[in-house]
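R.M. (postdoc): so does anyone remember the format we settled on? I'll just put the structure tokens first.
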């Protein structure tokens, strides 16, 4: 399975399990959705950049972190203040998915870059 598939499967199955266990709510769903979309989009960008110009990967990762800070700030404010989500379930879900998905990305990046070190130069 590809890293993007792992990110998707982990996100959606864990959300489904929470929902089946009785903790499903719009707050929990949108707490998962934001970090999932960000992780999926950033992973696609990381893979494409690594394939075409690996020397640009670090700069892309720095730009992605800055963009995520801005987007996530607006995302949280809009969903809590404008939409009226309950803060506790939303923030717990958001923080949990944010941490878990970024940890997955870090592991996949480590594997991607480790494979570079093992492959002979062309």
């Amino acid at each position: 399975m590809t890293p993007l598939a792992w990110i998707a499967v982990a996100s959606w199955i864990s959300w489904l399990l929470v929902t089946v266990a009785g903790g499903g709510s719009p707050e929990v769903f949108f707490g998962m959705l934001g970090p999932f979309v960000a992780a999926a989009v950033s992973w696609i960008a990381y893979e494409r950049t690594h394939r075409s110009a690996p020397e640009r990967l670090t700069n892309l990762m720095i730009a992605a972190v800055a963009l995520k800070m801005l987007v996530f700030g607006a995302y949280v404010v809009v969903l809590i203040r404008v939409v009226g989500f309950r803060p506790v379930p939303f923030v717990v879900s958001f923080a949990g998915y944010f941490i878990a998905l970024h940890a997955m990305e870090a592991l996949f990046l480590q594997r991607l870059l480790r494979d570079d070190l093992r492959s002979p130069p062309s």
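R.M.: ...and that's the designed sequence above, right after the tokens. Also worth knowing: The radius of gyration is 16 Å. The CA atoms of residues 46 and 60 lie 7 Å apart.
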